[in-house]
Amino acid sequence: MMRIILNKQTMAMTTVQKATFECLAPVALTLGATLLCLPAQAQDKVLNLYSARHYQTDEVMYDTFTRTTGIKINRVDADDAGIVARLKAEGAASPADVILLVDAARMASADAQGLFRPIKSAVLDKAIPSNLKATPTPDGVTWTGFSTRARVVVYDPLRVKAADVATYEQLADPKLKGMLCTRSGSHPYNLSLFATVVERLGDEKGEAWLKGLVANMARQPKGGDTDQIKAVASGECAVALTNTYYAARLLKSSKPDEKSTMEKVRVVFPNQGTSGAHVNIAGAAVARHAKHVENAVQFMEYLASPFAQDYFANGNNEFPAVVGIKIDNAALKAMGGDAFKAENIPLGVVAKNMTKVQQMLDRVGYK
Ligand code: FE
After folding, report:
1. Ligand 1: distance of its center to the CA of 346 in Å?
2. CA 78, CA 81: separation in Å to the nearest integer?
């Protein structure tokens, strides 16, 4: 009977509201909390998705999933931090089944806070390279990457030679003093990169490298990746770091100032002769308190399908995570994104090194 009340409540709500109220509505009816969020019946053809992605192309991806499986998607959109805060606030009452976030550092952080549920999937084991996922435990894998982005160097060809910025290590060379611009060192994009550099170089050399970056700064870290590219184009800096999709977005822009920005800079995929360019992920995880676990796993497996991969990656000018799917993106190709060597350090190490790297940043004064 309680379920009937709940269903009547939810049926009257809009799609997005429904995800919010599926568990919360009965609170107003003062029913016992333990009764509110009983595991959904297997026949419930519903999936509650919390997404930090806001791309129009995703709509086709979701609609196609619903059409082929009959599973309706209720979506809650928020930014990464908002989603994590919401999951924590909702606790066991959370209606969330699948969480979409960007960056391994954010995934690792949410995972460390116990917000994800490990799953086992032979489909995902086969489709997604193991370095693009959380480190597996006997219970399964918590988060999985479904698209990748490389963290590349942008430089001013009038002031810097390509050979001087061919590796991440060279960014700490005193030769580049007063030339480097980055966003905050603590931003997840940089934390993830730094965590893998420290993994490769070891703690001592890794921290010395971070100190070298600080010594080469043209200004205090500020702004986002696009701001760094624009700062190189304007001459404020000569070298910067950006995720590939920001550069691709500017390359595709119809705004004259953004087009001219990319004409003034060059892009380098670092470490092509050694460890490969650092790649990060946008990915998904099943929520710790998911009520529709089977649907959630089915959705995760769908994200690895060639059809969904096309939308998932292209929606944000990213690369597919599934091996063997070719990119079809002129801007990424123009940068050399169709044939670069990617780092293969498991992104699970980001979780392992994150706290250590943050402490190093504090010690070397990387704002
Ligand atoms: Fe971004």
Report:
1. 20
2. 8
pLDDT in tens, 110-153: 999 999 999 999 999 999 999 999 999 999 999 999 999 999 99
Q: Residue 36 C-alpha to ligand 1 middle, in angstroms?
A: 36
Residues of the chain with CATH 3.40.190.10: 3-148+280-326, 149-277+339-364
For residue range 169-202, list pLDDT tens digits in order: 999 999 999 999 999 999 999 999 999 999 999 9
> What architecture does CATH give domain 3-148+280-326?
3-Layer(aba) Sandwich (3.40)
What is the Å distance from ligand 1's center to 336 Cα? 20
**Centre of ligand 1 from the C-alpha of residue 222, in Å:** 15
Q: Are 134 and 107 in contact (CB under 8 A)?
A: yes
Those residues whose C-beta lies under 8 Å from the C-beta of residue 193, and which sit 6 or more positions away, are 151, 168, 241, 278, 280
Distance from residue 139's CA to the centre of ligand 1 (Å): 31
Q: Are 198 and 364 in contact (CB under 8 A)?
A: no
| pTM greater than the 0.90 cutoff | no
If one counts every other C-beta atom within 10 angstroms of the C-beta of residue 327, the result is 17
Compute the distance from residue 191 Cα to the ligand 1 centre, in Å.
13
CATH architecture of 149-277+339-364: 3-Layer(aba) Sandwich (3.40)
